Amino acid sequence: MNTFTTWKAILLNDLRTLKQLEGLDEVRYAFKQQEIGQHCCQAGENLTNTELALLKKKLHLTEEQWRAYISRLLFTPAE
């Protein structure tokens, strides 16, 4: 599997899990958002700008949403 396909699969799974956690467990939801942010950063390091733009498009994420997930890395969920 190539890098683009790998990151697409990882992030699709992350977003699916996040959707399942919505409204059920605030702490796990917040940690999943942080994990998605980490994966966004890692994808950004491993993909070209063209691949990254295509990935965001395939995931139906705007640039603002992408950055919002990355910004979650700066915050620790309250227990």
Explain what the structure shows.
The protein is an all-alpha fold. The chain contains four helices and no strands. The longest helix has 21 residues.
Report the strand count: 0
Q: H/E series, N to C?
A: HHHH
- Helical run tally: 4
Q: Return the average pLDDT rounded to an integer.
A: 93
Largest sheet: none
Sheet/helix structural class: mainly alpha
Spans of 5+ residues with little confidence (pLDDT < 50)?
none
Helicity, as a percent range: over 70%
Topology:
Elements: H1 3-21, H2 26-46, H3 49-58, H4 63-71
Helix pairs in contact: 1-2, 2-4
Give the key terms.
single chain, 79 residues, mainly alpha, globular
Structure, briefly:
The protein is mainly α and 79 residues long. 75% of the residues lie in helices and 0% in strands. It is built from 4 helices and no strands.
